[in-house]
Predict the structure.
Amino acid sequence: DTAVSQTPKYLVTQMGNDKSIKCEQNLGHDTMYWYKQDSKKFLKIMFSYNNKELIINETVPNRFSPKSPDKAHLNLHINSLELGDSAVYFCASSGEGQPQHFGDGTRLSIL
Amino acid sequence: GNSVTQMEGPVTLSEEAFLTINCTYTATGYPSLFWYVQYPGEGLQLLLKATKADDKGSNKGFEATYRKETTSFHLEKGSVQVSDSAVYFCALSGTGRRALTFGSGTRLQVQP
């Protein structure tokens, strides 16, 4: 059973397009996150949702919009993709007092 | 704000050598500290954690001790294997904020 699953695993698209990444967790956790890992492997928090409510929104361009339809899902929509958006995007989840569990990542490549 | 500093890699060791990867942190309050490991092409896996001062986290032969006086959480393993080759991330979650602040990662290469 996959605890945190992301789709797609790979996403190759052209500049200017709009794309979405989906994330689902079956751990019963109440908090979900999106992280961005750049080409140098540096990881940075983008967003965090607790019980479908946005609680962390770091300095991320408005082109990035998270959406949590329920506490088991957190999707990430990106408008007008730019070259600098190329990265690996990781979804994670955690429960109260528990460490975060990560998905396998979505590698986004902008042509 | 919170920050984590790790030693730069890559760290290259021979099999059965002793491993230390240094990690220091800056945070207000009493953060929880973590080591995550990322194998090539995979996501991050929790390796070990410590939630209060003097706690020792351990797993798969790796260990790290939460040292509040030196604000450190160094990762150690007595005898590394080729299969330990990966990128290791030190991270913290601050008081009242569950999102992780990561160090820059340290690549470990173990040669047979």
User: Anything to note?
Assistant: The two ends of chain B are 41 Å apart (CA to CA). DSSP finds no helices and twelve strands in chain B. The interface with chain A takes residues 34, 36, 38, 42-46, 49, 87, 89, 97-102, 104-105, 107 of chain B (CB under 8 Å).
